[in-house]
Batch of 2 targets.
Target 1
Amino acid sequence: MSTTAEETHSKPAREVADEAARRRTFAVISHPDAGKSTLTEALALHAAAITSAGAVHGKGDRRGVTSDWMDMEQARGISITSAALRIDYGDTVLNLLDTPGHADFSEDTYRVLSAVDCAIMLLDSAKGLEPQTLKLFDVCRARNMPVITFVNKWDRPGREPLELLDEIEQRIGLRPTPLNWPVGIAGDFRGLIDRADGSYTKLTRTPGGATRAVEERLTPEQAAETEGETWVQATEEMELLGEIGAHIDEESFMAGQSSPVLFGAALPNFGISQLLDTLVKLAPPPPAPVDARGERRPIDAPFSGQVFKMQANMDKAHRDRMAFVRIASGRFERGMVLTHARTGKPFATKYTQAVFGSERSTVETAYPGDVIALVNAAALSVGDTLYASPKVEFAPIPSFAPEHFAVCRAKDSGRYKQFQRGMAQLDAEGVVQVLTSDVRGEQAPVLAAVGPLQFDVVAHRMAEEFNATVELAHLDYTLARRTDAASAPAAHALSGAEVLKRRADGELLVLVHNKYRLRVIVRDNPGLVLEPLLAGGAD
Ligand code: GDP
């Protein structure tokens, strides 16, 4: 049965507003090994979305949340693509979007951040801020996104809490406002004081740590008696926080200037309920979306959504292409016929799916903040808008600054047609950015990627799907700058630089060997237009 836009809109707008209000759509930003998988599992477990640890995201079986869509992915044991995980917690629906990026990074990692309203910055208590976390944080910062900080692995020896807070403030200028405070040093973790009411949650490990830790709530008096000197030390530190004014401030949190901090340990499930409660209380529900012209579409307006990720071959049995859409406004009902804003063509949603773990289940209705996966979506590209009348189109998702470049050629020149088709498709899907120039010619485009693994994906898909085996030759460039037509000839003539056109949007990019070379170029050519691309690059 198909439903028209009008019928859908006649459903009480109140329902859409209420459903949107109880949703929280977020992602975890972290460096590999900080504990993202463990935290994901702990959140799901704690929220009782699943019954036993390991079922969703066990280290030994990552296929739970991520999808085993390619042999390559399995062989490497990493997640190339991401999925959305829905966690019901009381009355709240938590949509956790996975940011892929274990040993590697890709544009997908960044694009996911364009589809969330909040991020959890996950830090390893012994390591503090690490490179990948910093890169991802830059993207959050560029969008003024609210960030909640979770300092993980508190059960192991690590750094001093005050030192970690200091690092956050000094290095990224994010003012930390701890919500809880650890009792006992990292490695001898006793429990957490809730700064809001001074109550103490004593934590007792359960054997194996696979199930929820036993959390015992004590009054400050009881806690002082049980923990002795350790308690005194923790309360003294906490008083210090009061003096420096590290209090939660919702306005600056929402502006991405301050960050509520929680200490805990995902593996033994310490402090996970506090994190869930913080998401409910502080993380923002989906806002009314703003379109490309800067106009706000009410959250209860008819359906609109934006594709933030494309994925192919999720399931070997169905050679399809999936579009992941974040709902921006309105109620989605399976079977609705939507309009694809870029082409004006209708798009049927009969086979829409929700993605939970490796299971694909059919979704019947969904609301703002939810992610739906549309199958047979070859016509869609990252950034595209789908809507039910009235028309709306959202601003494109920015492409990120590539740091890896390679020339791509068809091994067999007789397969040039297949080669061209594959390049066009992978470009449209946003697997890599395709750059061309008259100098290099159409047969040898330059591929630009955020992470080198994207090239492996290209090679694999070109051979498997498009029947065009390719050769990739890495280029010795590490950064790109945007230029204009007037500056292009001069930029192209520079040594250690080259100008290419980005196929997707026609932007002219200057590729440069490294930042030292760039510095010299800028110094010696003050008139040249060389603008940085968006966050994510080494610049
Ligand atoms: P990811 O790479 O960020 O997904 O990290 P994982 O979740 O796979 O965790 C990396 C390692 O850290 C694994 O061996 C986890 O068991 C371990 N780990 C994660 N959280 C904790 C924690 O709270 N305490 C301790 N001791 N180990 C943890």
Target 2
Amino acid sequence: MSPVDPNPHQPADGAARHHDDDQASHDHDGHGDEGRGHDGHGHDGDGQDGHGHGGHGHESHGHGSELSEMALRVRALESLLLEKGYVEEAALDELVQTYETRIGPRNGAMIVARSWTDPAFRDWLLRDASAAIHAMGFTGRQGEHMVAVENTPQEHNMVVCTLCSCYPWPVLGLPPTWYKSPPYRSRAVIDPRGVLADFGVELPPATRIRVWDSTAEVRYLVIPMRPAGTDGWSAEELAALVSRDSMIGTAVVAAPAVAAAS
Ligand code: FE
């Protein structure tokens, strides 16, 4: 095996799935088999049960010491891999360093800004996000199969991984802690409007909310709406307005006047 398998999840049905905000239940059949296939990309939530994918609902896994449990397991695994010569410590450090410091939401913001300013790129992005993003030079693990979903006045998109923490690393960096938390993962599907309210986002009642469940196979990037008052702005200026959360769908991009006043 390679030092860190880039896509340890088992491909399943491959179909992009989404949940409408009035739909409370869904399944995880697309997520591969029980207890494996989700290793390898930093799950904090389900320390000891191998994720227990089989038929879990959206209950919180309230183990008291799951973080230290997981940290111990990661350390044990790393020691074993090092000892057996399967990985080099420097390579592991390089990977962690890269995602912690060199790859972050700025990549995604540049993609969003370009989609706002370059109609041909926008069309390409919506049609084949993996290729369009790759063409901008953003490649890497956990971002091999990207789908871009565009917010409109009629429809707001929001991303979750109900199972664990699947997230588009090459364009957004590492996921925030709340993204990996059981409450977000469960409530995003059951009560997306409530979750948005917790984030301070209130959408018009007529705006439909679609919740996209990230999987091993597909990672989503939300293209937020371009704010008013930015006519003639360059892509660089626009990118500076785009927050990480707006690309997960738990924030909107405020108009510059509003942003300056707040
Ligand atoms: Fe996941």
